Amino acid sequence: MIDKVYCADVRPDMEGKRVKLAGWVYRKREVGKKVFIVLRDSSGVVQTVFKREASEEAYAEAKKVGIESSVIIEGTVKADPRAPGGAEVQADKMEIVQNVDFFPITKDASDEFLLDVRHLHLHSPKVSSIMKVKGTMMAAAREWLLQNGWYEVFPPILVTGAVEGGSTLFKLKYFDRTAYLSQSAQLYLEAAIFGLEKVWSLTPSFRAEKSRTRRHLTEFWHLELEAAWMDLNDILKVEEELVSYMVQRTLELRRKDVETFRKDLKTLRNTVPPFPRISYDEAIEILQSKGVEIEWGEDMGADEERILTQEFESPFFVYGYPKHIKAFYMKEDPEDPRKVLAADMLAPEGYGEVIGGSQREDSYEKLVQRILEEGMDPKDYEWYLDLRKYGSVPHSGFGLGLERLVAWVLKLDHVRWATLFPRTPSRLYP
Ligand SMILES: NC(=O)C[C@H]([NH3+])C(=O)NS(=O)(=O)OC[C@H]1O[C@@H](n2cnc3c(N)ncnc32)[C@H](O)[C@@H]1O
Ligand SMILES: [Mg+2]
Description:
The chain is of the alpha+beta class and 430 residues long. It is 29% helix and 28% strand.
């Protein structure tokens, strides 16, 4: 590894210190007999200046080097309030590792072009900021989960059945059998709670969703928790504590990156327990009062959720959905058989659903009945039904879409920008 100083670590108090930098040419301009190069690395940028009198050779290299060329620069730090970070490097040596004559991404590049060359778009400091925030949010989640006694497990991705409906399964040939890409690790987490009680996993989940909305991917990162002995209210408390910790910790560690995308942090600061809770019935009434044509029993889509979020300035829960619009594994509400003990967490500012969760049906007979009601074959879920035969317990869990949470925190206009290489119905390459 090159013994280098990171760009963001070049400070005014290093005046006179000799440093070696390694990175990529981010910006370049010639002013009179000087060449200014803003060098970029993973930490940020620093201004370097090349003068003929300092080194003829380095000056000539600086004049010819192209944007996004990889370079190693040596020089002396000089405090200068006009330079980003208050200091610049007066360069006297440059090694061009690889010169780039023309970098295809220009200022006016369209979103579609950026996605076509996503492998080059990852040079962008803004993209790096998104990935740093996403990584920090997951690091915060891990911190919280470890501190609160949750065990990480590693469920399979190659599976034999649907969790969230057969219409969004990706099917593949598995030797002489049929397999699917996992839509959710939930069923396997439900098996794990009989030994570990409180489990979680971060896995890629796959949905053959044809819906081309700003919040759907065909592959997304899915943070899922499952706990024995917990009912719906218990798991909602877990959700709001976990999400609050993820958001507040990210503000603590990555505030500059977050502020690159949003100046108003109010809804993030408001993300502290307890989150507001409204029933599905109340949600329908609110929507109807705002002129939305929706009847009780209908599902809320992105548009309805967007309108609903206008009522809140923090994430909030909607609970008590009608049974027929929710998944087979959800426990019927003992007080109202039309409903299930399920709740979604919606993010404000128009983002909507970021978490889907519920208390699970723990009765063998009722679960068989729900599977049949949904037109599925209990034989396909024999192992899953066994979980209700051998020491069944009340249990609950949820799934958080990591890209959706990041998209809200950074106010991204599409969830695809929150993933390294977005997968959508029209995108499988690069
Ligand atoms: N362990 C569980 O209880 C999870 C449960 N089986 C489940 O998959 N619920 S979910 O379908 O609402 O998906 C959960 C979350 O997963 C995210 N999600 C769900 N589908 C997508 C797509 N297509 N793209 C991006 N993100 C998606 C979104 O935030 C949802 O709230
Ligand atoms: Mg959902």
